[in-house]
Amino acid sequence: MKERRFVRELLESKQRILVLSFVVGIMFLFLIIRLWHLQILNAVDYNTMSENNRLRFVPVAASRGAIMDRKGKVLVSNRPSFSLAVVPQEVVDKEALLTLLSNLLGLDRAEMAERWEKNKNRAKYYPIVLASNITRDHVEIIEENRLRLPGIEIEMKPVREYSSKQLAAHLLGYIGEVSEKELNLKGFEEYNPGDYVGKNGIERALEMELHGGDGGRQLEVDARGRVLRTISETYPSVGNSVVLTIDADIQKQAERAFGEQAGAAVVMDVNNGEILAFVSNPGFDPSLFSGKLPADVWQGYLDDARHPLENKALSGQYPPGSTFKIITALSGFQNNISNETTSINCSGSYDLGTSTFKCWNKRGHGTTNLRKSLRESCDVFYYQLGEKLGVDKIAATAQAFKLGTPLGVELLNERSGLIPTTEWKMKRFGKRWYHGESLPVAIGQGAVLLTPIQLASMTATLANEGTIYRPHLVKRIVDTDGKTLKETKKDVIGMVSLSKESFRFVKQGLLAVVNESGGTGSMARLYDVKVAGKTGTSQVVKLRDSRKSTPYQYRDHALFVAFAPFENPEVAVAVVVEHGEHGGAAAAPIAGRILRAYFDEKKPPRKESTYSSGEIDEDEINDNNEGTISKESGKNEDSVNDR
Fold it and tell me: Domain containing 145 — which CATH number?
């Protein structure tokens, strides 16, 4: 009995030992598999995680390339700014940290939390920018409270400095923080949240040239975030610099000529397409957009009836008014409908069917030939010419000048304008073109729309008698050593097939506009250079009985196009004054002042002044010279009332 019990207990003990051994074996097997998984399969990943626990990456932003005018004057450079960043892996209590930062610095807690949330999927050791362009006072407060702010870092980043404030703001553009949408675009793979990118103008169009390559430092830190040593360092590469075609001095005088008036001006070299001045007035301060734009400033821009944020020179589309008579006159020659001797009698209006089309001069111009029709801007002459031509023939000549299509300037968002045709109306409205609709088109009204840059190109093509150059703003791109990497060559994008005589007859008429008695553009006259030009006034709404009571937004636009010198043209100018009412009175003087600045630039430098101070204020000189546009006032009834 005892033996049997002993045997049974022995068997049970062996079974328990066997089960226990099996369990222990299984546990060791799992342990071995886990060790193999950790130390062999995922060794690289866990080694990286281990390094990240003691390493910190500090990005170093690259300086953007400079932007200069054609003479090398720096228009845009860089200045240092500070950003507040956080390393998430070093933060134990996110909410408490954000509250403390908000209390200490007066920053928007919700905005910081939103930035953190957007970047929560990034590597924990990579800094997240919570606030950009913070002040030096903020930096001092952070340093004083360093022990209370685990994971908080101050990053220094270069931001743009615009040496001339608002000068050429629409051309140069501005920078701002890269958006989440932009980070997902092709070409932005190397960008990180908090980086600055160009938002419009040259800053945007040439972002990839200007941006450069960011660098960074990998640091070893202790538990408190104190730097122990630098593990590795990559130096940033400065972006390439851009040399523009514009002349800063001419640009400055062109902007000053507008004063408080809204509008645009483009100055172009007629022999290569280089843009010497590119004005959209009023401007704005691009430096404000690098940080958080004050709400009152932003609202002020939005409420301004002159639309200071709109690039009018590139995107503004205006009825060209009487400046379009250049195209209608050339179309008459091209289609053998008229010549230099063609004349009509202007009684102040023209009847077609049941409609009466009025000339701006109610008394009429009497017997009028081509030269007089341009000089005094007779509408009736072009009503009759437009009736004979029809809209499609006028449109064909306009399209030969590349009007109604983007010209391919380097900036983004160039508008196309509009040259109406019978086909266009049928597609757009499903209606046929009526004969009488061609008459307003002939004087640049109706559905015709052009941009200031197209007006300048049209004038340059007329001046050089048929060669259409692509307008361009970038002269060359250079590296940090000044070596030219790219250079823009003149690009012929079309030729206008008209006889030299046709161009010269029209050009003679434009010379009369500025220099002969009764000419509507006499206020653009220069005493030492022959200027040829054409005034224009385009209706915004239908004429009203009382012009004096017309609100600002309903007043007519004033236009003027010109080229000079007449004998050997060098430069073309197009000026649009929004709601300026009369081309001869509002736009022509601005063009005259711009041309004065251009030709003064070509004069030899003045001798040193004998004044004891030894210094002369440039602005004061320019102000004193404003009266040298013309030795004659040139002001007459026709110039003031040009339609």
Answer: 3.90.1310.10
